[in-house]
Amino acid sequence: MRASAIFFLNQGIGTVTTERHQTMLNPLSILMQASTALVVMIALAQSLSPAWAQTAPRPPMRPAEFGASVAAKPVPQPVTPPAAPVLAPPVAPSVTVTKTETPKPLPSTTPAPEVLKRVNAALNASPYFSAYFTQLVGNRQSEGQVYVMKPGKLRFDYDPPVPTEIIADGSSVAVRDTKMATQDIYPIGQTPLKFLTREQIDLARDLKVTGIRVDPDRVIVAVEDHSTFAGTSKVTLFFEQPSLLLKQWIVVDPQGVEISVVLNEINITDRPNPKLFVIDFQTYK
After folding, report:
1. What is the 3-state secondary structure (H, E, C) of the chain?
2. What is the residue range of 226's domain?
3. Do residues 138 and 236 share a domain?
4. Which among 13, 55, 61, 285 is most buried, taking Cβ atoms within 10 Å?
């Protein structure tokens, strides 16, 4: 088709040229021949365009000495954050609550051995205690602090103006006059309250029990100590119901002098300072 089109085009142009030399053509003939040539050229262009598209050369490869070609940077895509994990609500640990039974008051019909057993358990519940005390001897009243630490240690500090201190260090008892700077020493076994400082208290073993009474608000135990200095001392102990804490005692010494001591603000938690129970043999003679 390409060869025939070129031949037809050459023939048309040649004819026009020959006739121009031979004779003078009229304008209408020239216009028709030119139109015919234009149509042939358009047809030739349409027939050749597919071949040109198929044989179009590719761009040259990048020379190796220039290095590898750089690939286009990828367009970053938006990152969707991971969904937050769904956590189960925390499970509270199981707690076993132990109910502490409130002690009940001893009834008045409680047998004497059971009363002594409960009273001994209360006295042995703590290895130490401290308290404020009020002491009454006849018409004279004094106050101070008392400290007990088992075994064998005891101290009474009297508030002024009473110049008296009583200290037991485990083997001896010193009755001190702070105003005169003097003190008297006695064996601890001759004091009527020595049973309070025993490591394990047993009233029926250590003393002679002479009476027991159970009231709604207190338990009363009466004992006698035949080993005190100068004879027998009678001691009456008062325990508060239902805790059975020792709240009061009354001592009647061998001369018949009655000494009453009432305890307040009893502390069985804080351990007393051991230095409180040291007898000073240098300052006091």
Report:
1. CHHHHHHHHHHHHHHHHHHHHHCCCCHHHHHHHHHHHHHHHHHHHHHHHHHHHHCCCCCCCCCHHHCCCCCCCCCCCCCCCCCCCCCCCCCCCCCCCCCCCCCCCCCCCCCHHHHHHHHHHHHCCCCEEEEEEEEEECCEEEEEEEEEECCCEEEEEECCCCCEEEEEECCEEEEEECCCCEEEEEEHHHCCCHHHHCCCCCHHHHCEEEEEEECCCEEEEEEEEEEECCEEEEEEEEEECCCCCEEEEEEECCCCCEEEEEEEEEECCCCCCHHHHCCCCCCCC
2. 112-277
3. yes
4. 13
